[in-house]
Amino acid sequence: MRILVTNDDGINAPGLQVLEQIAQNIAGPKGEVWVVAPAFEQSGVGHCISYTHPMMIARLDKRRYAAEGSPADCILAGLYDVLQGARPDLVLSGINRGNNAAENVMYSGTVGGAMEAALQGLPAIALSQYMGPLTEELPSIFDSAVGHGQAVIERLIKDAPWDQGDYRLFYNVNFPPVATGDVKGLRVTPQGYRRDTFFGVKPHISPSGRKFLWITGGPQHQPTAPGTDAAVNLDGYISVTPMRADLTAHDALNDVKKALE
């Protein structure tokens, strides 16, 4: 098996090292794991691509590359430069430090990398580790991902549907902020929504007198609706959410047609 791995926390991120080891275990001794990850952290870039300027790519080791771009850029670089068109059997993105559940999905570079792989017609999984007070006390903040990541990916490969549609399925996995032994199980969930929690800005005046704005996030431990991703994560379950890049509001199409056509 040939696996392509990326992330949005950067080539030196500990979560990437965790995912590389999981990928090696899945690929087996005769398999190949290729890593193409951002040279610097790219959190919050979503599915952006560097369309208006070039990016530098550097070989760091055998099958290991850093690119000055987004996770989606890294997928494109991996497919069409590093692998020279030799398609991987699976693309893994992560393991992100912090959850990519609920509205975070729309901003996530981790999810953006998996989305680009799906748009390229490849099976893809995004993986993230929810953080909390308990994770900071563990030997590894990625403890539940380390303990359950390989099994979840192998179950998805073996048992989950992988369609060949124009906007093919990909999967978003979030591990709960608990120790491996405290994980209660796995739940397949829709994407949730944290009400009254929004991104915003905080002004800051520099020593030169110029105003800068810091992006601020909302509380991450506010549960979403019962049975949705963040809610089950906070209850100790791994969430698996099937996704597509198609943003059409299919539930509204008929009503809009009746109103406008």
Characterization of the model:
28% of the residues lie in helices and 25% in strands. The protein is an alpha/beta fold and 261 residues long. The chain has a single domain, classed as Stationary-phase Survival Protein Sure Homolog, Chain: A. Helix 1 packs parallel to helix 5 (143-159) and helix 2 packs parallel to helix 3.
Give the SSE map.
Elements: E1 2-6, H1 14-27, E2 32-38, E3 57-61, E4 64-67, H2 71-82, E5 90-97, H3 109-119, E6 124-129, H4 133-136, H5 143-159, E7 170-175, E8 185-188, E9 200-205, E10 211-216, H6 229-234, E11 237-243, H7 253-260
Parallel strand pairs: 1-2, 1-5, 2-4, 5-6, 6-7, 8-11
Antiparallel strand pairs: 3-4, 7-11, 9-10
Which key phrases capture this entry?
alpha/beta; 7 helices; nucleotide-binding; two-stranded antiparallel sheet; 11 strands; SurE-like_sf
User: Nearest-angstrom radius of gyration?
Assistant: 19 Å
Parts with pLDDT < 50 across at least 5 consecutive residues: none
Mean pLDDT score: 96
The CATH class label is: Alpha Beta
Keywords: Cytoplasm, Hydrolase, Metal-binding, Nucleotide-binding
Family: Belongs to the SurE nucleotidase family.
Domain Survival protein SurE-like phosphatase/nucleotidase: 3-195
Organism: Roseinatronobacter alkalisoli
Please provide a brief summary of the model:
The protein is of the alpha/beta class and 261 residues long.
